[in-house]
Design brief:
With 69 residues, the chain is mainly α. The chain has two helices and no strands. The radius of gyration is 18 Å and the shape is flat. The two termini are 26 Å apart.
């Protein structure tokens, strides 16, 4: 019986104020966040495209093994 172990990738170190760093990075790319940009794009979870949901799941836990149920 063999046992496979997977090591998780190391996460990057966050700056002292990650929200400000994110906003600053967005502004450098020409994105100006405002009050209308913080609302959800989709009114229901079922409207979210599978490609976007799958990418989000992989970003949260890329090593998670999902069973096809």
């Amino acid at each position: 019986m063999s046992c496979r172990t997977r090591s998780r990738p190391t996460l990057p170190e966050l700056p002292s104020d990650p929200v400000e760093a994110l906003a600053r990075g967005n502004r450098k790319q020409g994105i100006a966040p405002d009050g209308s940009s913080c609302g959800p794009k989709w009114s229901r979870d079922s409207y979210i495209l599978w490609a976007i949901e799958a990418a989000a799941r992989d970003a949260i836990d890329p090593w998670e093994e999902r069973s096809a149920a």
